[in-house]
Specification:
Helices cover 77% and strands 6% of the residues. It has 143 residues and is mainly α. Helix 1 (9-39) crosses helix 5, helix 3 runs antiparallel to helix 4 (86-107) and helix 4 packs across helix 5 (116-141). InterPro entries: Phage_holin_4_2. The chain crosses the membrane at residues 22-44, 50-68, 75-96, 116-142.
Amino acid sequence: MLSCYPLKWEKRMHYDGIMSHFISRWLVLTIAAGVMVALLPGMHAIGDPPILGIGAFALFMALINASIKPIVHAIALPFSILSFGLIALIINWLFMQLASWLAMSLFDVGVVIDGFWWSVIGSLIMSIVSTIVGGIIGGMFAD
């Protein structure tokens, strides 16, 4: 039987699950980044309306978190242990700067971070808020 989909049904369902997980993760990170920008004077959303900048920043944070962040954290784990977590803070700062730079470079909107410590505080806020919001959204879509 011919199918209008190039993928078999099982593969398509798996692909749809991955995409829906990524989109829900992007939504969670957008909410968390919005809270972060609202609470911290060292974070500024650039865009008209500002949600465009926050959404672009969150998109790149989601892409980084899904692709290179686990690999970099695994490679840096021994150094992170030796430095009592300082390396993990630096890696998170670098990834937030990278997401900000990518959003501003590609879309001319994004989140501007004023310094290292604003990034550290911002990553803590994003982590807490995304855990809470992810639990709520995950509970809404659970089977």
